Amino acid sequence: MTLDEAIKHCKEVAEELRNVDMGELDALYCGDTECIEARKNDCIECADEHKQLANWLKELKQLREQTRWISCGERQPKENGNYLAFYRTSDGTTSLEFMMVDHCNAGGGWLHEENERKAYKKVIAWMPLPTSYRGK
Q1: Which of 10, 15, 65, 69 has the greatest number of CB atoms lying within 10 Å of its CB?
Q2: Are strands 70-71 and 94-104 parallel, antiparallel or unpaired?
């Protein structure tokens, strides 16, 4: 099950539980009004819990998207700025570096400032940096 499927399922269950038919509950609980009312309250509480779970899953999906490596073959950054970049060095090994990028080309070449001079690096994957802490 994907996160999108789980989110959709939680929303559907919450909606179903909110719309429980009192007549169906009456048939299940032999007409005992107190028992039926307690069960209806349980359904509402469970619906609220499923709604909360759907919200947490949406938040998890957003966090995963913000903290995943993005292949340069998938896409390049839309704007210049600071990124964490995984790149291939001239001797064929790979390295990880914080880069301030001035320009990206479609092949993954990134122009950036290196020791006060411009340099290109063959970037394989990248991710945006987290936002700065701002306090309350």
Answers
A1: 10
A2: unpaired
